[in-house]
UniProtKB/TrEMBL annotation:
It comes from the Bacteria. Belongs to the pyrroline-5-carboxylate reductase family. The lineage of its organism: Bacteria, Pseudomonadati, Pseudomonadota, Gammaproteobacteria, Cellvibrionales. Its main location: cytoplasm. Residues 9-104 form the Pyrroline-5-carboxylate reductase catalytic N-terminal domain. It catalyses: L-proline + NADP(+) = (S)-1-pyrroline-5-carboxylate + NADPH + 2 H(+); L-proline + NAD(+) = (S)-1-pyrroline-5-carboxylate + NADH + 2 H(+). It comes from Biformimicrobium ophioploci. Residues 169-273 form the Pyrroline-5-carboxylate reductase dimerisation domain. PANTHER family: PYRROLINE-5-CARBOXYLATE REDUCTASE, PYRROLINE-5-CARBOXYLATE REDUCTASE 3. Its EC number is 1.5.1.2. Pfam families: F420_oxidored, P5CR_dimer. This is Pyrroline-5-carboxylate reductase. Pathway: Amino-acid biosynthesis; L-proline biosynthesis; L-proline from L-glutamate 5-semialdehyde: step 1/1. It is found in: Cytoplasm. InterPro entries: 6-PGluconate_DH-like_C_sf (IPR008927), NAD(P)-bd_dom_sf (IPR036291), P5C_Rdtase_cat_N (IPR028939), P5CR_dimer (IPR029036), Pyrroline-COOH_reductase (IPR000304).
Length: 280
């Protein structure tokens, strides 16, 4: 029985991986007690390093790890999720811990098949900036998830950034295309700017410093501003000036169509992954 004011004991399966690691790091930075977190994995060295960094408990035995967990976060790659869930099933029979899955492209129906119909399951789609508490997490609650369990999911995701609950499961694929995969789009754009600045003669370290601070500044300005991003862009573009010339090039070469097509491909890949599961 959970004591008043003690946050739930959470087990992260695949806890030292990129995504769960970012969520755990962000939660601890936000004050979540590390002793309430258990991270599992297969690589003992990686787990030990992770535990040294964050002070959380670690384990390689998933079945033992979930035995008394109130919340179980599944964060393995989609390709191994089915086998993992089926291996957990015996430990979950007759119990109803909240299961939160971070995986892209696996529908709720598959978890219900693998784990049992009785479990309350939330699909969450976070992103790696959760590590610095600047994350975004999309959330979708399956059947049987209680209001208290929604709040538990919200408490975890809300500790590391902003949250958005979607009413339809397909909304998770839209969240993937915007914020789940989105950090990689910005990193790609930054890489391109750094490479171009270096090619034009700037020292790489200077190019990195200027590019990152510009990205941060633009995002902060947009977040604190009461005008939209199109207006902020126009504020930088003096008529007949330098920015206008650069923006004209982006627009002439179809940046908006390219972005829309890439986001479409991203969401479509999530749907395709779900179809591949059905064929297995
Ligand atoms: N990366 C991202 O930006 C995002 C990822 N996601 C989702 O998060 C999930 C994890 O992705 P990501 O963190 O990038 O992948 P990683 O490969 O970094 O992490 C997965 C972890 O799972 C562990 N693992 C594999 N098999 C088992 C097992 N049987 N038992 C316990 N642990 C196991 C691995 O540990 P070991 O090395 O010890 O085997 C590894 O640390 C995916 O489903 C992905 O769709 C969602 C949103 C964003
Ligand atoms: O690329 C992927 O499949 C995962 C899901 C969202 C971000 N990374």
């Amino acid at each position: 029985m959970q004591q008043a004011n003690v946050p739930p004991k959470i087990v992260f399966i695949g806890g030292a991986g990129n995504m769960a690691g970012a969520v755990i790091g962000g939660m601890i930075a936000a004050g979540y007690p590390p002793e309430q977190i258990l991270a599992t994995g297969r690589d003992t060295r990686k787990l030990a390093d992770f535990s040294t960094r964050w002070g959380v408990a670690i384990a390689t035995d998933n079945l033992q790890a979930v035995a008394d967990a109130e919340v179980i976060v599944l964060s393995v790659k989609p390709q191994v999720m089915g086998a993992l869930c089926q291996s957990l099933r015996p430990a979950l029979a007759g119990r109803e811990p909240l299961v939160i899955t971070l995986a892209a492209g696996i529908p709720l129906a598959a978890y219900r098949r693998w784990l049992g119909e009785h479990l309350p399951i939330v699909r969450a789609m976070p992103n790696t900036p959760s590590l610095v508490q600047a994350g975004v997490t999309g959330l979708y609650a399956g059947p049987g998830v209680t209001q208290a369990q929604r709040q538990q999911a919200e408490q975890i995701a809300g500790a590391v950034g902003i949250t958005l609950w979607v009413e339809e499961e397909s909304g998770i694929d839209q969240v993937i295309a915007v914020s789940g995969s989105g950090p990689a789009y910005y990193f790609l754009f930054m890489e391109a700017m750094i490479d171009a600045a270096e090619a034009a003669g700037m020292a790489r370290a200077d190019a990195e410093r200027l590019t990152l601070q510009t990205a941060l500044g633009a995002a902060k300005l947009a977040q604190s501003s009461d005008v939209d991003v199109a207006r902020l862009r126009r504020n930088v573009m003096s008529p007949g000036g330098t920015t206008e010339r650069a923006i004209q090039r982006f627009q002439r070469d179809g940046l908006d169509k390219l972005v829309a097509a890439a986001m479409h491909d991203c969401a479509e890949r999530a749907a395709e992954m779900a179809r591949e599961l059905d064929r297995d």
